[in-house]
Amino acid sequence: MLKKEIANALILQLNKEFQSAYIYLGMSAYASKIGLNGSSSWFLIQYQEEVAHAMKLFKYLEDQDVDITLPKIEKANVDFESILDTFKKALKHEIFMSANLNELSDLTMKNKDHATYNMLQWYVTEQVEEEATLNTIIDKIKLVGDNGYGLYAIDQELGARVFVDPTSN
Ligand code: FEO
What we know:
Elements: H1 4-33, H2 37-63, H3 83-110, H4 114-144, H5 148-159
């Protein structure tokens, strides 16, 4: 049985994971609009990853018999300055998500809720990977600058990403 404060914080996090999925869907739409289909596909896979993150949390809440509520999801942006700007905003968002997860971990630690703390560490580790991946992509895009061929090559590379359910390991 979870403490009310923790259950509520997890429901908020569940909402943020779905919000993240929506944010990436918007980024996918933008990339497609400017003709970067590889990037669009990459963001679509990121959308799927976020849904998987949300569903892992949803399952945990169900297992803990929490009375689940589903707060509303905000409108997502579909307009960005450039593909570099899009990935920079994605990184900024992941840094925000990491901060939320750290705060949640602190809350569970303070309440000696070891089970929830353990469950959250999966997310904390996942965040390190997500931030690192985005940093690498941003570096590559910066490196090619205005070179259209370079950007095309990066877009091809991003398009090769396939969805692997992150919660399956
Ligand atoms: Fe589920 Fe990218 O944070």
